[in-house]
Amino acid sequence: MTRIITHFAIVLFCFFLFSLQTISQSAQMSSGCDQVPDNFNTSSSYQSNLETVLSTLRDCSSHGSYANATAGLSPNTVYGMFLCRGDTSRASCSKCVHSATLSMSETCNSHKGTFVFHNECMVRYSNFSFFTLVEDEPVFGRFSAFSSSGYPKVSNQTISGKINELIPRASSSSSVPYFVEDQEHVTQVESSYDLKAIVQCSPDLDPRNCTVCLRLAAQFLYDCCA
Ligand SMILES: *[C@@H]1O[C@H](CO)[C@@H](O)[C@H](O)[C@H]1NC(C)=O
Ligand SMILES: *[C@@H]1O[C@H](CO)[C@@H](O)[C@H](O)[C@H]1NC(C)=O
Ligand SMILES: *[C@@H]1O[C@H](CO)[C@@H](O)[C@H](O)[C@H]1NC(C)=O
Ligand SMILES: *[C@@H]1O[C@H](CO)[C@@H](O)[C@H](O)[C@H]1NC(C)=O
Ligand SMILES: *[C@@H]1O[C@H](CO)[C@@H](O)[C@H](O)[C@H]1NC(C)=O
To answer: Which range is the signal sequence, renumbered to this chain (predicted)?
Structure first.
Protein backbone atom coordinates (compact mmCIF):
# COMPACT_ATOMS: atom_id res chain seq x y z
CA MET A 1 0.00 0.00 0.00
CA THR A 2 1.30 3.42 -0.87
CA ARG A 3 0.83 6.12 1.68
CA ILE A 4 1.10 9.64 0.46
CA ILE A 5 1.98 12.12 3.14
CA THR A 6 1.80 15.71 2.21
CA HIS A 7 0.52 19.07 3.28
CA PHE A 8 -2.61 20.77 2.22
CA ALA A 9 -3.15 24.29 3.35
CA ILE A 10 -6.19 26.50 3.63
CA VAL A 11 -5.75 30.18 4.27
CA LEU A 12 -8.88 32.19 4.90
CA PHE A 13 -8.59 35.89 5.48
CA CYS A 14 -11.34 38.37 6.10
CA PHE A 15 -10.44 41.80 5.03
CA PHE A 16 -13.84 43.31 4.22
CA LEU A 17 -12.74 45.06 1.08
CA PHE A 18 -14.35 47.32 -1.43
CA SER A 19 -15.39 47.28 -5.06
CA LEU A 20 -12.55 47.57 -7.41
CA GLN A 21 -11.85 48.38 -10.93
CA THR A 22 -8.62 46.61 -11.53
CA ILE A 23 -6.92 43.71 -9.87
CA SER A 24 -3.47 42.56 -10.61
CA GLN A 25 -2.24 39.29 -9.27
CA SER A 26 1.04 37.55 -9.06
CA ALA A 27 2.31 34.75 -6.90
CA GLN A 28 3.33 37.13 -4.15
CA MET A 29 0.86 39.90 -4.32
CA SER A 30 -2.63 41.03 -5.28
CA SER A 31 -3.60 44.64 -5.47
CA GLY A 32 -6.44 46.79 -6.66
CA CYS A 33 -7.89 50.26 -6.72
CA ASP A 34 -11.12 51.85 -5.54
CA GLN A 35 -13.87 51.73 -8.08
CA VAL A 36 -14.24 55.45 -8.67
CA PRO A 37 -11.23 56.96 -10.40
CA ASP A 38 -10.24 60.38 -9.23
CA ASN A 39 -7.25 62.08 -10.67
CA PHE A 40 -6.28 63.80 -7.49
CA ASN A 41 -3.57 66.33 -7.86
CA THR A 42 -0.38 64.82 -6.56
CA SER A 43 0.53 68.09 -4.91
CA SER A 44 -2.85 68.28 -3.19
CA SER A 45 -3.49 67.88 0.48
CA TYR A 46 -4.98 64.44 -0.25
CA GLN A 47 -1.56 63.33 -1.41
CA SER A 48 0.22 64.73 1.62
CA ASN A 49 -2.39 63.21 3.97
CA LEU A 50 -1.85 59.92 2.18
CA GLU A 51 1.87 60.15 2.75
CA THR A 52 1.22 60.86 6.45
CA VAL A 53 -1.06 57.82 6.73
CA LEU A 54 1.35 55.48 4.96
CA SER A 55 4.30 56.64 7.02
CA THR A 56 2.26 56.28 10.25
CA LEU A 57 1.39 52.73 9.23
CA ARG A 58 5.06 51.98 8.57
CA ASP A 59 5.97 53.33 12.02
CA CYS A 60 3.22 51.29 13.69
CA SER A 61 4.20 48.09 11.91
CA SER A 62 7.14 47.46 14.24
CA HIS A 63 4.79 47.54 17.27
CA GLY A 64 1.91 45.27 16.35
CA SER A 65 0.10 43.23 13.75
CA TYR A 66 -2.72 45.71 13.14
CA ALA A 67 -3.00 49.49 13.02
CA ASN A 68 -5.24 52.12 11.56
CA ALA A 69 -4.41 55.73 10.76
CA THR A 70 -6.42 58.77 9.73
CA ALA A 71 -5.06 62.09 8.50
CA GLY A 72 -6.45 65.38 7.23
CA LEU A 73 -9.68 67.30 7.19
CA SER A 74 -12.71 66.59 5.01
CA PRO A 75 -12.89 66.29 2.02
CA ASN A 76 -9.22 65.31 1.96
CA THR A 77 -9.28 62.86 4.86
CA VAL A 78 -7.35 59.65 4.23
CA TYR A 79 -8.10 56.43 6.17
CA GLY A 80 -5.63 53.58 6.21
CA MET A 81 -4.88 50.30 7.91
CA PHE A 82 -2.62 47.30 7.77
CA LEU A 83 -3.02 43.77 9.05
CA CYS A 84 -0.33 41.14 9.25
CA ARG A 85 -0.93 37.44 9.30
CA GLY A 86 -1.17 36.25 12.88
CA ASP A 87 1.75 33.85 12.48
CA THR A 88 4.13 36.52 11.18
CA SER A 89 6.99 37.82 13.31
CA ARG A 90 7.21 41.52 14.17
CA ALA A 91 10.21 41.89 11.88
CA SER A 92 8.54 40.20 8.89
CA CYS A 93 5.33 42.13 9.50
CA SER A 94 7.19 45.41 9.48
CA LYS A 95 9.17 44.46 6.41
CA CYS A 96 5.98 43.48 4.58
CA VAL A 97 4.15 46.70 5.52
CA HIS A 98 7.15 48.79 4.46
CA SER A 99 7.31 47.14 1.08
CA ALA A 100 3.53 47.27 0.55
CA THR A 101 3.15 50.94 1.51
CA LEU A 102 6.12 51.97 -0.59
CA SER A 103 4.74 50.20 -3.65
CA MET A 104 1.15 51.30 -3.27
CA SER A 105 1.40 55.05 -3.54
CA GLU A 106 2.21 54.45 -7.21
CA THR A 107 -0.23 51.58 -7.86
CA CYS A 108 -3.42 53.60 -8.18
CA ASN A 109 -2.44 57.19 -8.60
CA SER A 110 -5.69 57.93 -10.42
CA HIS A 111 -7.83 56.56 -7.57
CA LYS A 112 -8.41 57.66 -4.01
CA GLY A 113 -8.17 54.17 -2.58
CA THR A 114 -5.87 51.21 -2.94
CA PHE A 115 -5.31 47.87 -1.30
CA VAL A 116 -2.43 45.44 -1.49
CA PHE A 117 -2.29 41.85 -0.29
CA HIS A 118 1.12 40.35 0.17
CA ASN A 119 1.62 36.88 1.57
CA GLU A 120 2.19 38.16 5.09
CA CYS A 121 0.24 41.41 5.24
CA MET A 122 -2.41 43.54 3.66
CA VAL A 123 -2.59 47.33 3.51
CA ARG A 124 -5.48 49.49 2.47
CA TYR A 125 -6.27 53.18 2.30
CA SER A 126 -9.28 55.09 1.07
CA ASN A 127 -11.07 58.42 1.30
CA PHE A 128 -13.92 56.95 3.39
CA SER A 129 -13.92 55.33 6.77
CA PHE A 130 -14.10 51.61 6.01
CA PHE A 131 -13.19 50.51 9.54
CA THR A 132 -15.62 48.01 11.16
CA LEU A 133 -17.45 47.38 7.87
CA VAL A 134 -17.97 44.01 6.21
CA GLU A 135 -17.92 44.28 2.47
CA ASP A 136 -18.16 41.25 0.23
CA GLU A 137 -16.06 42.61 -2.61
CA PRO A 138 -13.44 42.30 -3.77
CA VAL A 139 -12.52 38.77 -2.86
CA PHE A 140 -9.54 36.66 -3.83
CA GLY A 141 -9.18 32.93 -4.09
CA ARG A 142 -5.86 31.42 -4.77
CA PHE A 143 -4.83 27.81 -4.96
CA SER A 144 -1.44 26.23 -5.19
CA ALA A 145 -0.51 24.71 -8.49
CA PHE A 146 -0.77 21.14 -7.21
CA SER A 147 -0.33 18.55 -9.85
CA SER A 148 -3.19 16.08 -9.82
CA SER A 149 -0.91 13.10 -9.27
CA GLY A 150 1.03 12.87 -6.07
CA TYR A 151 -1.42 14.80 -3.93
CA PRO A 152 -4.32 13.39 -2.00
CA LYS A 153 -7.86 14.18 -2.87
CA VAL A 154 -9.08 16.36 -0.03
CA SER A 155 -12.79 15.98 0.33
CA ASN A 156 -15.14 18.88 0.40
CA GLN A 157 -16.49 17.68 3.75
CA THR A 158 -13.01 17.64 5.23
CA ILE A 159 -12.43 21.25 4.22
CA SER A 160 -15.85 22.60 5.12
CA GLY A 161 -15.75 20.64 8.41
CA LYS A 162 -12.41 22.20 9.27
CA ILE A 163 -13.51 25.71 8.36
CA ASN A 164 -16.78 25.38 10.28
CA GLU A 165 -14.76 24.30 13.30
CA LEU A 166 -12.33 27.23 13.05
CA ILE A 167 -14.72 30.13 12.36
CA PRO A 168 -16.25 30.22 15.86
CA ARG A 169 -12.75 29.88 17.33
CA ALA A 170 -11.46 32.82 15.26
CA SER A 171 -14.14 35.19 16.49
CA SER A 172 -13.40 34.30 20.11
CA SER A 173 -9.63 33.80 20.06
CA SER A 174 -7.62 36.17 22.18
CA SER A 175 -3.83 35.74 22.10
CA VAL A 176 -3.61 37.15 18.57
CA PRO A 177 -6.95 38.82 17.88
CA TYR A 178 -9.19 36.86 15.53
CA PHE A 179 -6.45 34.50 14.44
CA VAL A 180 -6.56 30.73 14.52
CA GLU A 181 -4.16 28.25 13.02
CA ASP A 182 -4.65 24.55 13.00
CA GLN A 183 -2.95 21.44 11.79
CA GLU A 184 -4.51 18.02 11.74
CA HIS A 185 -3.31 14.73 10.43
CA VAL A 186 -6.04 13.33 8.21
CA THR A 187 -6.07 9.64 7.48
CA GLN A 188 -8.04 8.40 4.51
CA VAL A 189 -8.33 4.96 2.98
CA GLU A 190 -5.83 5.63 0.22
CA SER A 191 -3.64 8.33 1.71
CA SER A 192 -2.91 10.50 4.69
CA TYR A 193 -1.81 14.08 4.89
CA ASP A 194 -1.45 17.09 7.15
CA LEU A 195 -4.24 19.60 6.72
CA LYS A 196 -3.12 23.07 7.75
CA ALA A 197 -5.57 25.90 8.09
CA ILE A 198 -5.42 29.57 9.01
CA VAL A 199 -8.43 31.79 9.64
CA GLN A 200 -8.15 35.48 10.49
CA CYS A 201 -10.24 38.62 10.75
CA SER A 202 -9.17 42.21 10.97
CA PRO A 203 -9.51 43.40 14.61
CA ASP A 204 -11.68 46.41 13.74
CA LEU A 205 -14.57 44.05 13.02
CA ASP A 206 -16.84 43.15 15.92
CA PRO A 207 -17.14 39.39 16.62
CA ARG A 208 -20.42 39.12 14.79
CA ASN A 209 -19.08 40.80 11.65
CA CYS A 210 -15.95 38.68 11.88
CA THR A 211 -18.14 35.58 11.68
CA VAL A 212 -20.23 37.07 8.86
CA CYS A 213 -17.11 37.92 6.89
CA LEU A 214 -15.46 34.53 7.38
CA ARG A 215 -18.63 32.74 6.26
CA LEU A 216 -18.66 34.85 3.08
CA ALA A 217 -15.00 34.06 2.50
CA ALA A 218 -15.57 30.35 3.12
CA GLN A 219 -18.42 30.23 0.64
CA PHE A 220 -16.21 31.95 -1.90
CA LEU A 221 -13.47 29.44 -1.25
CA TYR A 222 -15.84 26.50 -1.88
CA ASP A 223 -17.07 28.14 -5.06
CA CYS A 224 -13.69 29.07 -6.47
CA CYS A 225 -11.48 26.25 -5.37
CA ALA A 226 -13.42 23.15 -4.36
C1 LIG B 1 -2.34 70.99 -8.70
O2 LIG B 1 -2.40 71.89 -7.62
C3 LIG B 1 -1.59 73.06 -7.80
C4 LIG B 1 -1.64 73.86 -6.50
O5 LIG B 1 -2.93 73.91 -5.96
C6 LIG B 1 -2.10 73.83 -9.02
O7 LIG B 1 -1.28 74.96 -9.24
C8 LIG B 1 -2.07 72.93 -10.25
O9 LIG B 1 -2.65 73.58 -11.35
C10 LIG B 1 -2.86 71.65 -9.99
N11 LIG B 1 -2.73 70.71 -11.10
C12 LIG B 1 -3.76 70.07 -11.64
C13 LIG B 1 -3.45 69.15 -12.76
O14 LIG B 1 -4.91 70.20 -11.22
C1 LIG C 1 -14.18 59.52 -2.30
O2 LIG C 1 -13.72 59.83 -3.61
C3 LIG C 1 -14.65 59.53 -4.64
C4 LIG C 1 -13.96 59.81 -5.96
O5 LIG C 1 -13.54 61.13 -6.03
C6 LIG C 1 -15.90 60.38 -4.44
O7 LIG C 1 -16.85 60.04 -5.44
C8 LIG C 1 -16.48 60.10 -3.05
O9 LIG C 1 -17.60 60.94 -2.81
C10 LIG C 1 -15.42 60.33 -1.98
N11 LIG C 1 -15.96 59.90 -0.69
C12 LIG C 1 -15.85 60.65 0.39
C13 LIG C 1 -16.44 60.08 1.64
O14 LIG C 1 -15.28 61.73 0.39
C1 LIG D 1 -21.02 45.19 10.50
O2 LIG D 1 -20.91 45.36 9.10
C3 LIG D 1 -22.02 46.04 8.52
C4 LIG D 1 -21.88 45.96 7.02
O5 LIG D 1 -20.71 46.57 6.58
C6 LIG D 1 -22.06 47.46 9.05
O7 LIG D 1 -23.15 48.17 8.50
C8 LIG D 1 -22.20 47.41 10.57
O9 LIG D 1 -22.13 48.72 11.09
C10 LIG D 1 -21.08 46.55 11.18
N11 LIG D 1 -21.35 46.36 12.60
C12 LIG D 1 -20.59 46.90 13.54
C13 LIG D 1 -21.01 46.62 14.94
O14 LIG D 1 -19.59 47.55 13.29
C1 LIG E 1 -18.63 21.92 -0.73
O2 LIG E 1 -19.23 22.18 0.52
C3 LIG E 1 -19.67 23.50 0.71
C4 LIG E 1 -20.14 23.65 2.15
O5 LIG E 1 -21.02 22.66 2.54
C6 LIG E 1 -20.78 23.81 -0.30
O7 LIG E 1 -21.22 25.13 -0.14
C8 LIG E 1 -20.22 23.61 -1.69
O9 LIG E 1 -21.24 23.82 -2.65
C10 LIG E 1 -19.65 22.20 -1.85
N11 LIG E 1 -19.00 22.14 -3.14
C12 LIG E 1 -19.06 21.05 -3.89
C13 LIG E 1 -18.32 21.09 -5.17
O14 LIG E 1 -19.67 20.05 -3.51
C1 LIG F 1 -7.72 52.26 15.47
O2 LIG F 1 -6.53 52.09 16.21
C3 LIG F 1 -6.64 52.47 17.59
C4 LIG F 1 -5.29 52.27 18.23
O5 LIG F 1 -4.30 52.83 17.47
C6 LIG F 1 -7.67 51.61 18.27
O7 LIG F 1 -7.82 52.03 19.62
C8 LIG F 1 -8.99 51.73 17.55
O9 LIG F 1 -9.90 50.83 18.11
C10 LIG F 1 -8.82 51.40 16.09
N11 LIG F 1 -10.07 51.62 15.40
C12 LIG F 1 -10.62 50.67 14.67
C13 LIG F 1 -11.92 51.03 14.05
O14 LIG F 1 -10.11 49.59 14.52
So the answer is: 1-24
